[in-house]
Specification:
The chain is 73% helix and 0% strand. With 107 residues, the chain is mainly α.
Length: 107
Amino acid sequence: MVFSTVLAEETAAQAEDLSNVFVVLMGMGTVFVGLICLVILCLLTSFIIRKFVAQPEEEAEVQTKAPAVSESPIANRQEFIAAVSAAIAEELGTSVNAIRIKSVKKI
């Protein structure tokens, strides 16, 4: 009688240990599968966005090429520098005397 009681208690303890292991494995498996699903959804969304959005950007690059720059000198260079320095001073909220323009290059 004592032997069967001890055997029953050991079997119950083993069943409880297996139950705990099962719960842990199921929880970890669920999280792992969920993360895999998120990665797949992100890749799918990225693919779809690249497919539909990339085409207009490529067309925009072709259309926005800069025209050829001529090497003609700037007419009224001093007036041009005065206008640029006045615009910069207005934007920065400072005096024109605080701004020094060292060089001007035509782009």
